Amino acid sequence: MYSVTICKVLMILCVLVSSSHAQEADAVNATATCDFSIQDSADLTLNCSRRNINEVPETWPEQVNSIDKDGHVLITFFNNTISNLSQLPSVPGKRVAISFKSNEIVDIEDDAFSNIEGLVYLDLSNNYIAGDVLRSEIFQGRYIDGTYASIGLETLNLGHNDIHSLDRYLFQHTPHLTRLYLNNNPIEILDHVTILALSSATNLEVLDLAKTDIDSIPLDAFRGLTKLQQIDLSDNRFVTVPESLSLVGESLQYLTFNNNPIVELNDDSFVGLTNLIELEVGENDYLDEVKRSTFSPLVNLRVLHLCHNKNLRYISHNAFRGLKDKWTLKEVYLDDNNLSELSTDLMPWNKLEILGMTGNSWLCNCDLADIVTKQEAGTKFQAGEIPYCAAPMRFSGAYITNITITYCPSLDTTVAPQRGFTLTDLKAKHLIWSILGVAAIAAIGMLLGLFVNAAKSFYNKRIKGQPIRYINLHADTRFA
């Protein structure tokens, strides 16, 4: 009986051992079947996408190790089933990019990337990574002379995960980080430790916070980020443009602010953003008004996207107040709003290079005709993107560039010179009419005086002069 039991145990052990060997073999075979692309021993691409790989390989295929030390390497494990990201084997090459996008990663081991000194790009998006999984030990380099070295990571994509907060020391070993993508994470609130983490990435140039459900950014969130050039705040819950952006106003060049529940843009919206080059404000369903001096702080703006705001009906003619004499805008896109009219002096239309106005219900009146023809806005439309008239009925459906309104008045802007009044300007008819006027006023005054005297005399004689009669009730028999 004992012999039978021992045999069964040995069989089970054999199955387990063979199973583990089979898994290792599968991992090796999986990477062995990856696609290679090598160019001049300087550029290598290892494509391991969609190979049903469930763990990181312990060694790379020989082709990876043959790359030149100054070469560029791209390794992608896109769309596999890796859940635990263990330490990766060494990769030669001066600049290495690795993607684990769209796996099932829930955990990352310490020193996961310490063997890859040239790692500059890492994509961990579309996984199940929580904030507590992310810690500085993941990104630390080799342990040398009692300290951990830094890695050369420049771009880190953490989008589409389950991150609520960041560890304050997360970027301790990534001093070269310039691009950080946190989009599509349920952050909701930029808490104190997350702000400390962000502010420690002092070389950050690009920050993506789109679809993170935040509605405010604390004033000190960007303190120290003096190199930040681009930020995306789209698809959040902002009701105003955050004031904290002014802290990075000297460096910020690109701002994307789409799909937020803002109602208006005003003179406080972009205060301090003096070096902004491109602004995109679109798909904001509640935005209905752009007020006076909204864009006045943007003295270096080159491109404005104000599109797809379905309720935007009004843009103040002073929205660019103070900028018209120092005009920098080259491209203005006003497509797919709810606009019907624009002021002729909204902007110097002839100084634009590209103008987009399609998808609005334009009223083809004299102002629009002036903008399109006299101010040459009609020459700024791109091919196939000429807007139509919606009203009046006789112009409906016609290109606005084909409309000529002959009855539009031409205002004379010249001013006649003024001169002083002299007695020589008086003529005989002027004197006659003046005398007749004075005589008429005197006659009317006399008649009014006579009427007043007659009324007073009538009052004194007939009303005021009647005596008061007293009746003796005892003597008068009518009351007996």
From TrEMBL:
<dbReference type="InterPro" id="IPR050541">
    <property type="entry name" value="LRR_TM_domain-containing"/>
</dbReference>
<dbReference type="InterPro" id="IPR001611">
    <property type="entry name" value="Leu-rich_rpt"/>
</dbReference>
<keyword id="KW-0433">Leucine-rich repeat</keyword>
<dbReference type="GO" id="GO:0005886">
    <property type="term" value="C:plasma membrane"/>
</dbReference>
<protein>
    <submittedName>
        <fullName>Protein artichoke-like isoform X1</fullName>
    </submittedName>
</protein>
<keyword id="KW-0732">Signal</keyword>
<dbReference type="InterPro" id="IPR003591">
    <property type="entry name" value="Leu-rich_rpt_typical-subtyp"/>
</dbReference>
<keyword id="KW-0677">Repeat</keyword>
<feature type="signal peptide">
    <location>
        <begin position="1"/>
        <end position="22"/>
    </location>
</feature>
<dbReference type="Pfam" id="PF13855">
    <property type="entry name" value="LRR_8"/>
</dbReference>
<feature type="transmembrane region" description="Helical">
    <location>
        <begin position="431"/>
        <end position="454"/>
    </location>
</feature>
<keyword id="KW-0812">Transmembrane</keyword>
<dbReference type="InterPro" id="IPR032675">
    <property type="entry name" value="LRR_dom_sf"/>
</dbReference>
<keyword id="KW-0472">Membrane</keyword>
<keyword id="KW-1133">Transmembrane helix</keyword>
